[in-house]
Automatic annotation (TrEMBL):
Segments forming domain Spermatogenesis-associated protein 20-like TRX: 3-163
Protein source organism: Nocardioides jiangxiensis
PANTHER family according to UniProt: SPERMATOGENESIS-ASSOCIATED PROTEIN 20
Classification via Gene3D superfamilies: 1.50.10.10, Glutaredoxin
Name of protein: Thioredoxin domain-containing protein
UniProt cross-references to SUPFAM superfamilies, sorted A to Z: Six-hairpin glycosidases (SSF48208), Thioredoxin-like (SSF52833)
Entry-linked Pfam families: Thioredox_DsbH
Length: 674
């Protein structure tokens, strides 16, 4: 038996390198072997921080008897969904079509052409809750393959045809009435008691909240007309959800950063894995809000990214696991984060421990499992003495928690998610006045340029400074390009514009579809059963909605009509989903809101100092605005960007120019007039 995962770059694949299963990586060699042996391909897809992936691995993939069945009757292929989102997208679509739901771990069985004829998610080692045991599933599938080949071929052909018919019909570009309708649709699914949308489990709706932020601001400021009741509803959904998440058990109240989602409607118990893409987006969202709570959450989340996810090479790791070891040596979900009243007293002393238990709602019964509680902070003390006490308690609990066994870190660097982190850190750096956050964003960007960009094309993943072989997909090009454009605005360095342009050139040349939208994989990428093309946002922006933002931002910075047209055409492709299911199109809606009358282009010119900083901060408060800050010497005839040329100060004071489509209003010199 040989397990071929020992040389993989993916931490998830490496977790399975010692399994008795004869795993292969995804590739033509595995399918050649299946043809040679005359057996089907068993595809198992997951990721390193996935709790149920670990459970299935322990129950089945580490079991000698189960592995023997797999090895005898299948060629077994293990895929990291974060490393190969294209493979994951194709077979997740098949799983959802065949079962009505999806998730990870994902198990598909394929014919020799890669067409699935069976799909599912987690299977237990014993029959449980109406589910068959995994070994029963394996036996039935092997029997069907060998005894009913015609049925297998018919099922595989039907699924493949279904996957090829997944396109949407483009509509007109989203207008103001469509955005109003999206707000009504969101209001119908809003949870008025707990905030957020839908019931349990409850996910952080980062992109939807950014749309609502832009929608409310445009109508409050008078740059867009709006129904007063709709604006009130949008504002309530935004504020209620931001406050609920900040005080929830999903937010790490002592270490900063957000867990993946809450398993309950009230945001009390999280699924404890911490993902880079969630925290990058929420960081930017909170940083752009002008209140004490949002500033605190943004700073704590940025500090979490730098403290726990930053790699020695300057990039950001993908995730922290949900599971960690208990003092008894057992691996349990949430063991690193949950507390008992006795543990609080042990760390803080009796008086402070009792105070902390009441404040964080840590009970004798427990709000989680085995008498443990998550930490929630629904009411933040307002008195200065109590705030100082809270800060001291959080610091001491963080020190005490460091003595526990830490969750495993998935330390691969994913291009798209680092692009999101760059954008989030730029927002935090500029709004909170933290140059170190912007410096961290620039270091991550340099890693992407130096390591991930190979012969002008992005690679998806690196680890320990070594780039992997998997090609970047559309979301990589789009999120990294937008990160570079945000760095341009945060630093004033025009080199980032050229780097973004190179990525967008590849996106337009390799990923464009005939209807004006984009595919997720390049024209010269590996050919799969179908060429994947995602229209809806999930935990992070889909490639198409992300590229709209990058194209529109580039157009606003340069005046490029071609990039603006491409953004509008793609938005038209995304329009039907955005109006029909706005919860899954938040990033498209955010782009549409900004593109109704913008993006606004703001140039702030002046010598460094408080006056220029005040103008720049006021400009950046405008959702979706493109903001460049420059000294007078950078705005002459030889300015690096057309938008900067001929922008003198007025009366020797720092001055702001507000433009739309390169046409500018009169310059102003105070934030209120701006």
């Amino acid at each position: 038996m040989s397990n071929r995962l020992a040389a993989a770059t993916s931490p998830y694949l490496l977790q399975h390198a010692d399994n008795p299963v004869e795993w292969w990586e995804w590739g033509p060699e595995a399918f050649d072997e299946a043809r040679r042996r005359g057996v089907p391909v068993l595809l198992s897809v997951g990721y390193a921080a996935c709790h149920w992936c670990h459970v299935m691995a322990h129950e089945s993939f580490e079991d000698e008897a189960t592995a023997a069945l797999m090895n005898d009757f299948f060629v077994n292929v293990k895929v990291d969904r974060e490393e190969r989102p294209d493979v994951d997208a194709v077979y997740m679509a098949a799983t959802q079509a065949m079962t009505g739901s999806g998730g990870w771990p994902m198990t598909c069985v394929l014919d020799h052409e890669g067409r699935p004829f069976f799909a599912g998610t987690y299977f237990p080692d014993q029959p449980r809750h109406g589910q068959p045991a995994f070994r029963q599933v394996l036996t039935s599938l092997a029997e069907a393959w060998f005894k009913k080949p015609d049925d297998v071929a018919s099922a595989a052909a039907a699924v493949a045809e279904h996957l090829r018919q997944g396109a949407l019909t483009a509509s007109a570009t989203l207008g103001a009435a469509d955005l109003d309708q999206a707000v009504r649709g969101l209001a119908a699914e809003f949870d008025p008691l707990a905030g957020g949308f839908g019931g349990a489990p409850k996910f952080p709706p980062s992109m939807v909240l950014e749309f609502l932020r832009r929608y409310v601001d445009a109508r409050d400021s008078g740059t867009a007309a709006g129904d007063d009741e709709l604006v009130r509803q949008a504002r309530h959904m935004l504020v209620r959800t931001l406050h609920a998440m900040a005080g929830s058990g999903m937010y790490d109240q002592i270490g900063g950063g957000f867990a993946r989602y809450a398993v309950d409607r009230g945001w009390v118990v999280p699924h404890f894995e911490k993902m880079l893409y969630d925290n990058a987006q929420l960081l930017g969202l909170y940083a752009r809000r002008d209140n004490d709570l949002s500033r605190r959450v943004a700073q704590e989340t940025a500090d979490f990214l730098l403290r726990e996810l930053r790699t020695p090479e300057g990039g950001f790791a993908s995730a922290l696991d949900a599971d960690s070891l208990t003092p008894e040596g057992h691996s349990e979900e949430g063991a690193f984060y949950a507390w008992t009243p006795a543990q609080l007293v042990e760390a803080l002393g009796h008086d402070r421990g009792a105070w902390a238990a009441e404040l964080f709602h840590v009970t004798e019964e427990g709000t989680f499992e085995k008498g443990m509680s998550t930490l929630t902070l629904r009411h933040v003390p307002t008195a200065s003495g109590e705030q100082a006490r809270l800060s001291e308690v959080k610091a001491r609990l963080l020190d005490a928690r460091e003595l526990r066994a830490r969750p495993h870190r998935d330390d691969k660097v994913v291009a798209a998610w680092n692009g999101l982190a760059i954008s989030g850190l730029c927002a935090a750096g500029t709004f909170l006045g933290r140059d170190d956050y912007v410096d961290a964003a620039a270091a991550a960007a340099r890693l992407l340029l130096d390591v991930h960009l190979v012969d002008g094309r992005l690679r998806r993943v690196s680890r320990d400074g070594a780039v992997g072989s998997h090609a970047g997909v559309l979301e990589d090009y789009a999120c990294v390009a937008l990160g570079f454009l945000d760095l341009l605005q945060a630093t004033g360095d025009p080199a980032w514009l050229g780097h973004a342009r190179g990525l967008l050139d590849v996106a337009l040349g390799q990923f464009r579809a005939d209807d004006g939208g984009f595919f997720d994989t390049a024209a010269d990428a590996e050919e799969l059963v179908t060429r994947p093309r995602e229209f809806s946002d999930n935990a992070s922006p889909c490639g198409q909605s992300a590229v709209v933002h990058a194209l529109a931002t580039y157009a606003a910075l340069t005046g490029s009509g071609a990039h603006r047209t491409a953004a509008e055409e793609t938005l038209a492709v995304l329009g039907p989903l955005a109006t029909r299911a706005p919860r899954f199109a938040g990033w498209s809606l955010a782009a549409a809101e900004t593109m109704l009358s913008g993006p606004e282009e703001v140039v702030v010119v002046g010598e460094p100092g408080p006056e220029r900083d005040a103008l720049a901060l006021a400009a950046r408060r405008r959702p979706g605005a493109i903001v460049l800050v420059a000294s007078p010497a950078e705005t002459g005839d030889d300015a690096a960007l057309d938008l900067l040329r001929h922008r003198p100060m007025v009366d020797g004071r720092p001055t702001a120019y507000v433009c739309r489509g390169m046409v500018c209003e009169r310059p102003v010199t105070d934030p209120a007039s701006l």
